Amino acid sequence: MKINIAIDGYSSCGKSTLAKLLSQKLEYSYIDTGSMYRSVTLYLVNQGLIKDGKVTLEQVVNSLDEIDITFKYNPSKHQSDTYLNGKNVEDEIRSPEISSLVSGISKIKEVRKKLILLQQKIAEDKGIVMDGRDIGTAVLPNAEVKFFVTADLEIRTQRRYEELKEKGYDYSFDKVKQNLLERDHHDTSREENPLKQAKDAILLDNTELTIEELVDKSYQYVQTKINK
Ligand code: DC
Fold first, then answer.
1. Tally of structural domains, the chain
2. Considering all CA atoms of the chain, what is the largest pairwise distance in Å, rounded to the nearest integer?
3. 136, 33 in Cβ contact below 8 A?
């Protein structure tokens, strides 16, 4: 029996790494919903529609029908890459520019409506590990397993700082921390589907666990649900 697994949590708390490894272990598909919000943001940037971090609702709504987001499995990475209108945008959508703009775009009700419908459609056949901010609460409220991942802010900052450094970006630790705090604020305080732990979600604190321990813990739990 295949089930759906919803993973929510703050930015850079390790939820995507968990979702990727767990999906590989279960031979499930991994869907990174953050990459969808990032792709919409990239599209608006490429069209020159975001000025000083702002965009008009009308322009966003008019653009939504022109945006097609798909995933294609990349065997060399053992994971799927994100495609925007047929182009692989996996690297572009992770740039600091997109990271700083995406929270503003993900607040827009019409954007969420389109992406949530797409996410629900993808999950129809089960066997999906999906990560984001509102998966257990809004996208897949009936998911058989829900995890909510947290980690200490210092650890999350260190993780993000190293990630950016590896990609060649030179940001101070404090700037990275500030950006995470801003994103937390946006994600938890927005009106539409704010980030919060679903009532039936299992809390996983990633501060002191190694990623292997985190994957093992969640895998054991998933097995109990699959074998029910
Ligand atoms: O997980 P991420 O950092 O790639 O997500 C990018 C942004 O998208 C994040 O600031 C919040 C938003 N997001 C969202 O609102 N809902 C989701 N299900 C996934 C991401």
1. 1
2. 52
3. no
What are the beta bridge partners of residue 88?
83
Distance 227 CA to ligand 1 centre (A): 31
- Among 153, 141, 201, which Cα is nearest to 181's? 153
Residue 130 DSSP SS3? strand
CB-based contacts of 155: which residues, under 8 Å, 6+ apart?
A: 206, 207
DSSP code, position 190: -
Q: From the CA of 35, how far away is ligand 1's center (Å)?
A: 7
- What is the distance in A from the centroid of ligand 1 to the CA of 63? 19
Residue whose CA is closest, atom 13 of ligand 1?
34
How is residue 13 written in tokens? 């708390």
Closest-CA residue, ligand 1 atom 18, reads 132
Per-residue pLDDT, 1: 87
3-state secondary structure of 63: helix
What CATH number does residue 218 fall under? 3.40.50.300
Ligand 1 center–CA 228 separation, angstroms: 32
- Per the structure, the complete domain to which residue 214 belongs is given by 4-226
pLDDT at residue 205, rounded to an integer: 93
Q: Which residues surround ligand 1 with Cβ inside 6 Å? A: 11, 33-34, 37-38, 102-103, 106, 132-135, 183, 187
Q: What pLDDT digit, counting tens, does each position of 179-226 carry? A: 899 989 999 999 999 999 999 999 999 998 999 999 999 999 999 999
Residues of the chain with confidence (pLDDT) below 70: none
Residue 59: the pLDDT is 96
